[in-house]
Amino acid sequence: MEWTMLLTIFWDRMPDILNVKDVSKALEISPRSARGLMEKIGGMKIAGKWMIAKTKIRTYFEE
Predict the structure, then answer these.
(1) Strand order from edge to edge, sheet including 17-19
(2) CB 57 within 8 A of CB 18
(3) Which pLDDT score, from 0 to 100, does residue 14 have?
(4) Is the pTM of this model over 0.90?
(5) CA pair distance 18, 58, nearest whole angstrom
């Protein structure tokens, strides 16, 4: 399998709404960096937790 196929399979298994832990794990960055990224690209703080749509992250990295 190619790397892009593996990444797509992994990405498709993730939930549609991601939290800091999910973003941190997927991008292999620290939770603090994940929060900063989420805030920068339009994440929302809901009930004390940062959340972001998976499509927003994908759009950010495809541009």
Answers:
(1) 17-19, 49-53, 44-46
(2) yes
(3) 84
(4) no
(5) 12
